[in-house]
Design brief:
The protein has 476 residues and is an alpha+beta fold. The protein contains ten helices and seven strands. It has a domain of 328 residues: Outer membrane efflux proteins (OEP), CATH 1.20.1600. The longest helix has 67 residues. 34% of the residues are buried.
């Protein structure tokens, strides 16, 4: 009986889902305004621990991957989607149940024709199938495909969350290093100006300088101290943000060691825009959700056709326990059910319309994911050239500010100018030093953004082994 039903199912099952075709990409064939060549490494096969070479940063990223709660939730959602797919997949197969039943009953004499009390018994042992749907129109198969695609979308979403977490930790670490270097610069400035204030206080006491010059030096010191306090506050806040990302205290971090921006991060090859379709986890997730929406349409269409469910059992039955397995005690039941709603108030049609609308929404979301990814990569590529130029200009500006401060101090010492000129020169020197640190940090942060925007390590598993981007056979 079951074998015959499986044969019917295999010969008649046909999905009513519309054929899936990947929507046409609306992005250009090449990156716009990109000055990046293709000499770097392919991002999709570049593991994060190969890209980020700073040992402290590597340790922080690994701690975040182990402890971050948001990533933990994303991974649990993958397990949830896997289990949901297993539940739906089980609907493809009959559920076999083993049942044993024993019953004894006594009927009084005034309730039967013999006028005597009767005691009867019934014993049964059966293997049965309960309400197994013959998937002639592919409804169950479509629901299974939808659950599979949702699972794959959740997997890609977890990969996107992992890549985003790596980029967030790297950016937070860069922020800490940026502010720490600026704090060190501000501290040195405060120490220098404290010494200047001490010298000018002594000069004022002996009448060698004016009260105006002393107040100007004091104002310069107060400005540096205020900046130092602001930077110390910002550094503490950045450390707290980093601790939240990694799910633990960051521990001791370098405070004043400047970055060598040419050695921290590897050179990247952006490739072609079309490569984002197989490297960006968020785009992959959006496509899987689109495939799931196609499968849901197939299930909604199949609801318009008759549903055939099989219920049956095979076993043995007897009025006495010792005759349960005797010759001639075999018993069986077979109860197929065919159902087709005649009137449902338009419910099935509404379900189909909802499925089609959700499919159209999934198309729009998939196209938006591609456009967003293209914009993020284009922004990072175009910004790289200008950030390098800004860094070089800030370096030249710092050299100029240092020379101007030296000459202004020399002119003041020789009585050729007022201390106001020295004051302005030292303000510009402090500003130029701070801006150079910020320019270097912005360049590094942009490289981190480019790594994430290109789907860094998307074709690697968590252990750094390359994985295939091909879809499972059941999802095609």
């Amino acid at each position: 009986m079951v074998a015959a039903a499986v044969a019917v199912l295999g010969s008649g099952c046909a999905s009513l889902a519309p054929p899936y075709e990947r929507p046409l990409s609306s992005v250009p064939d090449t990156w716009i305004d990109s000055t990046q060549d293709s000499q770097g490494r392919a991002v999709s096969t570049l593991a994060w621990n190969d890209y980020f070479t700073d040992p402290v940063l590597r340790k922080l990223i690994q701690t975040a991957l182990d402890n971050n709660r948001d990533l933990r939730v994303a991974l649990l959602q993958v397990e949830e989607a896997r289990a949901a797919h297993q539940i739906q997949r089980a609907e493809l197969f009959p559920q076999l149940n083993l049942a044993a039943q024993a019953a004894r009953a006594r009927v009084p004499g005034d309730l039967n024709l013999t006028g005597k009390p009767v005691t009867s018994g019934e014993y049964r042992a059966e293997v049965g199938v309960s309400s197994w749907e013959l998937d002639l129109w592919g409804r169950v198969r479509s629901l299974n495909d939808s659950a599979l695609q949702q699972w794959l979308a959740t997997q890609a979403g977890a990969q996107a969350a992992r890549t985003a977490l790596i980029a967030q930790v790297a950016s937070a670490y860069l922020n800490v290093r940026d502010v720490s270097e600026r704090v060190a610069l501000a501290r040195r400035t405060v120490e220098t100006r404290q010494e200047s204030f001490r010298i000018f206080s002594r000069r004022f006491e002996v009448g060698a300088t004016s009260k105006l010059d002393l107040t100007q030096v004091q104002m310069l010191l107060s400005q540096a101290q205020t900046l130092l306090a602001q930077l110390e506050q910002a550094r503490a806040a950045n450390i707290h943000a980093l601790g939240l990302l990694i799910g633990a205290h960051p521990g001791p971090l370098p405070e004043a060691v400047p970055f060598d921006e040419t050695m921290v991060l590897a050179e990247l090859a952006p490739g072609l825009p079309s490569e984002l379709l197989v490297t960006r986890p968020d785009i992959i997730a959006a496509e899987h959700r689109l495939m799931a929406a196609h499968a849901d349409i197939g299930a909604a269409r199949a609801a318009f056709f008759p549903r055939i469910a099989l219920t049956g059992s095979l076993g043995t039955a007897s009025a006495a326990l010792d005759g349960l397995f005797a010759s001639g005690s075999r018993a069986w039941t077979f109860a197929p059910v065919i159902s087709l709603p005649i009137f449902d108030g338009g419910r099935r049609q509404a379900h189909l319309e909802v499925s089609e609308i959700r499919r159209d929404m999934a198309v729009a979301q998939y196209e938006k994911s591609i456009q967003t990814a293209f914009r993020e990569v284009s922004d990072a590529l175009s910004a790289q050239h200008w950030l390098i130029e800004q860094r070089d200009l800030q370096r030249a500006s710092l050299v100029t500010a240092q020379e101007r401060a030296r000459l202004a101090q020399l002119r003041y010492d020789n009585g050729s100018s007022t201390y106001l000129e020295v004051l302005d020169a030292q303000r510009e020197l402090l500003t130029a030093g701070q801006q150079l640190v910020q320019a270097r940090s912005a360049l590094l942060a942009n490289q981190v953004s480019l790594y994430a925007a290109l789907g860094g390590g998307a074709q690697l598993d968590p252990e750094g082994v390359a994985v295939s981007t091909a879809l499972p056979a059941s999802s095609r």
